[in-house]
Amino acid sequence: MFNKRGQELSTGTIILLILGVIVLVLLVVGFTSGWDKLLPFISSSNVDAIKTQCSTACAVEGDYDYCKSPRTLVPSKGADKLVGVTCYYLSQHFSTYGIESCNLDCGASIAPVSWAETGLTDPTKKFTASEVTEALKKLCANNANSYSGKYLQVFVDADKDNTKTQRLISYACPAKN
C-alpha cells in the first residue's frame, strides 16, 4: 500500500478556494471604497426614479411631497449631484431632467431667496449648510411679514471637497400669530 500521510485537495476544491478569496476581496473593497469606484460601468443615476416620484406626487396632489419634500438627484456621470431639491424646484430650474410642472400652487408656500439676500457675502468662503440655514433663519426674523409660514429656499454650490454636489437649502419660517 501507498503511504498517505494526508488527504489530497482536488483541483475543484483549490479553484473554489481561490474564487472565494477573490469574492471576499471584492466585497471588502466595494464596501470600503464605494461600489461606484469598483464598478464604474454600472449606472447609479436615479433621475427616472425621481421623475416617477414627482409625477406620482403631482397625480395625488401631494402638496408637501411635490413642493417641499427634499430629494437627492444623482444624474449620470459628470453632472453635479443635486441635494435637497424638490420636485417643484427641479421643474422650475432644471428642465433638462424632464420633471414636469404640476398644477399645485407651490409658489404660495415657497419663497426663493437669492444668495445676496442671505447676507453671506464672502466670495472666498464655502459656507456650511448650518451657516446658510442660520442666515435664512435671520432673514425670516427680519422679514416676518413677508415670509410668515413660508419655506425659504436658496441654492448653493456645496462642492467643498470636489464631490460635484449642489444643494438646495430650505428653512420653514414660523407662521406669524
What this model shows, in words?
- The chain is α/β, with parallel strands linked by helices.
- It is built from seven helices and five strands.
- It has helices at residues 11-33, 35-38, 47-59, 63-68, 87-93, 129-142, 144-147; strands at 71-73, 81-85, 110-112, 151-157, 165-172.
- It has a five-stranded mixed beta sheet.
Q: Label the structural class.
A: alpha/beta
Uncertain stretches of 5 or more adjacent residues: none
Number of strands: 5
Strand order of the largest sheet: 1-2-5-4-3
Note the main sheet.
5 strands, mixed
* Overall number of structural domains: 1
Taken in chain order, the helices and strands follow as HHHHEEHEHHEE
Residues in helix, %: 40-55%
Percent strand: 5-15%
**Number of DSSP helical runs:** 7
Rg (CA only)? 25 Å
Q: What is the average of the pLDDT values?
A: 82
End-to-end Cα distance, whole Å, is 99 Å
Which shape, going by the Cα principal axes? elongated
